[in-house]
Each structure stands twice: as C-alpha cells, then as structure tokens.
Amino acid sequence: MKVEQLFTGCLAEMAYYIESNGEAAVIDPLRETEPYLRMAEADNAKIKYVFLTHFHADFVSGQYDLAQKTGAKIIFGPNASAEYDIYNGKDGEEFPLGEGKITLLHTPGHTMESSSYLITDDEGNTPYVCTGDCLFIGDVGRPDLAVKQGKLTEKDLAGHLYDSLRNKIMTLPDDIIVYPNHGAGSACGKNMSSETFDTLGNQKKTNYALRADMTKEEFIVEVTTGLKPPPQYFPNNVRMNKTINTSIEDILHKGTTPLDAATFKEMSEQKDILVVDTRSKELYAEEGTVPGAWYIGIDGNFAPWVGALIKDINQKIIFIADSENRVNEIVTRFSRVGYDNTLGYLEGGIANWKSHGFEVDTIGSISAHLFAEKLTKGEMEKPVDVRKESEYLSEHVVGVENFPLDFIHENFSEINPDKEYFLHCASGYRSLIAASIFKANGVKKVTDVRGGFKDLKETEVPMTDYVCPTTLL
C-alpha cells in the first residue's frame, strides 16, 4: 500500500493519497484536481473514494470536482450534509481499498461531523491514522468554529473533543503515525508544531492536550483559553465546501486574462475592483506599484492573508505578477480560499505600466539601524509594530505601539492620515502589506522598516523582555 502526504505550504495543509492494488483514495483534497488524477494515472489506479475529515474552514476543498471526474464516492462522517451527493459513514465503518482498508473513526469536537481515518495496509497492519483537525502535532483543533447559538457552545465542542481523543485516538497503538490536516501557520489551532507527522506515543509525551492525568474540565479550560477570533473568511469557506462551486478550470480561464496597461488602469480606478500586487517584497519596494494597490506577496503566506484581509469573498480582483509564468499559480492560490472573481493581470508587469507614463505609488523605506537612531532621538511620530499581539507581548521595541495586521480594518479608525507611520513586523512581509493598505486608505506618509524586528534586535534600541502568557499563545 502506498500512502503519500501532500503538503501545501501557503495553507499549512496536508492532503493524503492512498493506493492499493489499483484502487486509490484521497483524503482532504485541495480544489485543483489535476495532481491527484496524475498520481492515480501513474499508479494505473482508479480513485474509488474521496474522504473528508470535516467541512474545512480555511480552504475550499475539491471533493465535488474530483468525484465528478473519477466517479469516486464522497465520504463524510455522521452529521454532515451538503448540496451534492455524499455518503455519511458510520463510526467504525470499513471501506475496502485494494488489499487494504480505511476505517472511519467519528471524532467530533472541532466540528460535529469531524472524523479520523485509520489506514490498514495490505498485511493487516495499521501504520497510520489521518486525524484531520481533531489532533495536530503539538496541538488539537480549536473548538469554536462550529458553535451554534442556543444549541452548541465552544465548551460543548471542547467536551466532545476530549472524549474523541481519549476514546478513539489515544487508544490506538503508540507506534502509529499521526497524520494531521494542518501544521504550523494554520489558524485552526493555537500552537501547532512545524512537524507534519509524529508517533502517537510521542504526542502523548509532548502534546499538552494529551496529558494522561488531565481531567475533562481542565481540558476544556485549556483549549478554550486564549482563542483569537478566526479569520473572517472561515464561514465563507465552510459554506462553499457544502455547495457546488465554479470549477477551477473556469476560474483559471477568466483569471489569467492578460490586460494591457490602459485597460488595467481603467479597471484599477473602478471602486468595485481591487488591485493586488503579488510580486516579491524586494521588487514591490524597489519599483513601486499601481496607485491604490494592496501588496500581498505570493511568496509569503499569501492565501491566508488574502482571506483575512479581503472582506468580500466575491471581490473583483486584478493583479500584478513577478512573471507571467506565475499567473496560473496566483489565480489558483486565490481560489484555494474561495476568491474566485479574479479578472486578469497586468500584461508586461509594472515595467509596461511605467512605459505608458502612468503614475507609480511607492512606500518609504528605512533601515533598522536608522529607525533605532531616529526613535531614540524622538524624531518619529508613529512607530508601529504590526505583528500579532502574542509576538508583541513576547518582546518588542520600547516606545512602539502594537497594531496587528490581522485586525487592520477593524482598528483603522485609530489611524490619523496626517501623521507619518513607521511600520515593522518580524521580517518585512506583513509590514509591507500593512503599509500598502495604509496608503490605499489615504495615509500619505508611510515608511517600512527593512528587515523588521529581526534586524531591530541587532541594534541597541531598548527592548522589553516579557514572557508571553500562555493565554495569548
């Protein structure tokens, strides 16, 4: 039996491809179906099942399109319902796959339909369990995403999660490999490891939520404390995962339309169209951009920031790319979090824009050392740290306010457009995003601190030295 973990870095998401004797299954597929079709073709196998651990909140999954192209049966756990045909598996139900099988373990808590999948290989061994968002490496799934007012609280869900872990997962052999659906960087948990798999035995030793003597009451307090509001796009993705959506092929056909500079300019000036500059932070800072454009670089945590910052899931978007070779990738990554209304890209890039004599907008830039010098001398108005609150409380530059990028829209009323702002994050990616949104919202004087907090630590600027409370992790 072949079992492959397919890791997608920008979402910190893991899908799984399993094949035995000409039959294949996919667990938690991404929206683009081609990779799974190619894998099955290479194995001369037919995709028989598409298993979902739950209705995902942080990406749009590809079960419907993959089933349409392969005839595979879509399997969810109990309590799931969708606008397309699905099969609700029962707790303990076995699904034959070649000479092996996959067993559904109903593990509610993250959501009520959440299920894990125990893989039995051709020799009858059970080397792996795919735990979805029930058990991560170093953490467990957050229990606040499937709350139903008046019916189901996050404490109720946390209680279900405790029972699922103790009664379904922790009873498995210690040497079984835990394959989760997410890793570090995902907002589906609080403190996930960067590792993508581990033995259950090691997780029992190192994962705070699996402590052997933890009571249910202690567990509920632990997993519900310090939860930040989920990104605003999560409910939209859940809704999309229960419906039939536009095919990725149609989205790519529309989104990869080349737009000449004059057309791009005309569209960029329309109030209902957003320009997103996806280039590297170096090119964005050096060459400038189209006035009003937001910067969200494709080489950072692109999809999660698109989802967190662009409020309207149906937002019309045109974009700027480093290279026309990356246009397909960019449209695909917009669509992974449900932003399907991309209308095209600037043909010839910013060089073409400039060749037409069109105006270019720029963000100011300052080195960490000069920032430290000016701050010490009291020569700057508004120094701002746009990292997460937990990062800021852990350690920050004395005299610098925290203005987390995550909540930039909610808190923008605090910004004075007549002041000059100096922004930094950890390394320079998030601060450029924030700076571009400041500029797009009328703040004329915005300066980015190159190298961010990483370079600031190499200066002699005074720092706090707090330990971040566990409640803020």
UniProtKB/TrEMBL annotation:
State the UniProt keywords alphabetically: Hydrolase, Metal-binding
Instruction: Return the SUPFAM superfamilies for the record.
Output: Metallo-hydrolase/oxidoreductase, Rhodanese/Cell cycle control phosphatase
Q: Which residues form the Rhodanese domain?
A: 269-362, 384-465
Pfam families linked to this entry:
Lactamase_B, Rhodanese
PROSITE patterns the UniProt entry points to: RHODANESE_3
EC?
Answer: 3.-.-.-
* GO molecular function terms listed in the Swiss-Prot or TrEMBL record: hydrolase activity
Name the SMART domains for this protein: Lactamase_B, RHOD
- The broad enzyme category this protein falls into is hydrolase
* Protein name (Swiss-Prot/TrEMBL): MBL fold metallo-hydrolase
Top-down, what is the taxonomic lineage of the species of origin? Bacteria, Pseudomonadati, Bacteroidota, Flavobacteriia, Flavobacteriales
